[in-house]
Task: inverse folding
């Protein structure tokens, strides 16, 4: 592919940092009081435990045995006898260590790693067992969020996120979006606290730059430029608060 130099540099840096984060995550001690909590994620009430689904406890029994230390945890049950969620705790009753959440049928829904109520990493799965989202530490404020197509397993996006007061991820930084459009390979956008702000670039399947534009407070503002595969300006559009103007 003939990716332009800027695109290759930014993508390579992002992938490199992501790989480093994955390697570092593998070496995080299970219990290390020197780790500074990265983000406090409030406990969310599990809601109703009632379900009409039948439960197969085999998979979750094995996972709990492998990952959860006996006597150091708290758990919530579905009314069909399956575990709904189970957390390892520290001496103060804070989530510390591994966490497992399950669907009513016993299938794994989510795994997490905590340090004194601070979320360090998380993986989420579909009901069919496919990996759909991974959250990994980036720095003291941000995570990498990696999303996959629930059906095909294909990479959909890599986003830099922060967590809001409810513990939900919010885009804050660059967003690499891999599309299924055969003519558009990737879209790179910039976000601030969940709102699109800054430069946007879109690339064709062959890696050539296709569109550039600017966003302010979630709306297109300024000049949007369209390029030919050879890099020449093909057309321009002008926007003010998301409306095209002459």
Result:
């Amino acid at each position: 592919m003939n990716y332009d130099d800027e695109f290759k540099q930014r993508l390579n840096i992002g992938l490199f940092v992501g790989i480093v984060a994955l390697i570092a995550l593998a070496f995080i001690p299970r219990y290390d009081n020197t780790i500074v909590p990265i983000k406090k994620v409030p406990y969310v009430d599990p809601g109703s435990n009632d379900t009409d689904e039948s439960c197969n406890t085999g998979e979750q029994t094995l996972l709990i045995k492998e990952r959860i230390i006996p006597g150091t945890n708290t758990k919530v049950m579905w009314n069909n006898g399956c575990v709904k969620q189970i957390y390892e705790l520290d001496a103060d009753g804070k989530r510390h260590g591994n966490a497992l959440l399950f669907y009513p049928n016993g299938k794994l829904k989510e795994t997490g790693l905590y340090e004194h109520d601070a979320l360090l990493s998380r993986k989420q799965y579909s009901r069919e067992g496919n990996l759909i989202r991974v959250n990994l530490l980036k720095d003291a404020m941000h995570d990498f969020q990696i999303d996959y197509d629930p059906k095909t397993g294909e990479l959909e996006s890599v986003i830099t996120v922060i967590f809001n007061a409810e513990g939900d991820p919010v885009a804050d930084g660059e967003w690499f979006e891999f599309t299924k459009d055969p003519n558009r390979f990737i879209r790179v956008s910039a976000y601030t606290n969940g709102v699109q702000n800054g430069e946007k670039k879109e690339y064709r399947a062959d890696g050539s730059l296709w569109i550039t534009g600017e966003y302010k407070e979630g709306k297109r503002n300024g000049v949007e430029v369209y390029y030919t595969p050879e890099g020449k300006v093909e057309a321009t559009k002008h926007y003010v608060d998301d409306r095209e103007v002459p």
About this structure: The chain is about 15% helix and 45% strand. Residues 44-116 form one domain. The mean pLDDT is 80.
